[in-house]
Amino acid sequence: SQRFCVYLVCAKSGWGCLAMLTILELRNLKPGQARKDAGVRGSGSLWFIASGSGRVHGVFRYRPAGAPSAKDYRIAPYDEAGRMGMNLVAMREKAAELSRLYLGGVSDLKAHFAALEQERLAAIEAEHQAAETAKATQEAEAAARQHEEALRQKYSLAKLGELYEAHLRKAGKVKSANQVKSIFKVHILGAWPEIATLPANQVTAHQVAAMVRKVAEAGKERTSGYVRQFLHAAYALAIKAPFAANVSSDFIPFEIQTNPVAPIPTVPVRARDRTLDKEELKHYLGQLQDSPVDLALKLHLYAAGQRMDQLLRARVRDYDVDSHILRLWDPKGRRQQPREHRLPLAKLGAATVETLIARARQTRPEEDNPPLFPSGSRVMSAETLIKRVRMISDAAAGPPYRPGDIRRTVETL
Predict the structure, then answer these.
(1) H helices within 58-108, ranges in order?
(2) Cα–Cα 20 to 30 A to 164, which of 106, 361, 373, 396?
(3) What confidence score (pLDDT) does residue 397 get?
(4) Burial, 385: exposed, middle or buried (Cβ in 10 Å; 0-12, 13-18, 19+)?
(5) DSSP labels for 380-391?
């Protein structure tokens, strides 16, 4: 209950103590009253002011040089326990901090702390903006990577092969289209997926050479020649596409300007010279019966060994009954329109065609000009004939032969 007057000077804080307030005095502070805590003159002072409601607030009062009156900086509500505000010790520590600022030249504490808060908020905002910028950059980079990957897949070497295959089918070159499909599936996409999925305009001559060489080293010389041939043709079309009206514009986005296959030499293929002698030919012909497949093979023989794909495209109206001439269409090579090929048939060939015409009309009575070799809803496949020839060859005593050997035999004889 007694008041002690102690004079204390702290060299660090600059605070002294003359008649410092007690907790009891603050507890008994009446509404509207204000009490000053002891302090060193000229360094600012801590005041406790009770509002009309009785709530006590701590205020730091100071007078800047040249100012007509003192300024008050409100510190915080006073709370004896320090839970709902600052207790006395914390209040004095805060006042000491404000005093040091004041003595250090801060003439407007409110503006000083407002500026600090502004800097803090600006730093937070800058950090936020930096984070947003980094996030946007990451998203843009991810989108760019996704776009690049989409382009890689859309304009890859494999897609170029698909487009080239479609080009051949549109031109009516079904056999070549099927060969392209098989070559790309087995020897490019299947054997070199890392190259097949590259953008086609990034594939190098070294990579193409490796693909061709791998097939050749496996003993498939003819197939390796096809790999080179089809790749070269596909790239050549893509290069020509921007300038040629007869090439699909779908090739243009591949942006191919050079042909990586050009430096690679063509693969030399050993020509076959197998022919059937008269006894082998007699055996072969003796195995052919009257099934649709065997009739097709008979006509293949009687029609001077025409290419099977070309023969199988024939329709009923392609045969002239009076002249015994069978008209075939040859799309082979670079020609845009198939070339008409008129083939006169001898007695056995003519009889075979007439049998095929009767069967075709019976099989598809609803069609005015049905195919000469129907097979279900489609046309008979050359692969079906090849398998049948292989079956007959396997049953023969001599060396094996294939349809190309029969064609060569007819030409020879």
Answers:
(1) 88-103
(2) 373
(3) 84
(4) buried
(5) --HHHHHHHHHH
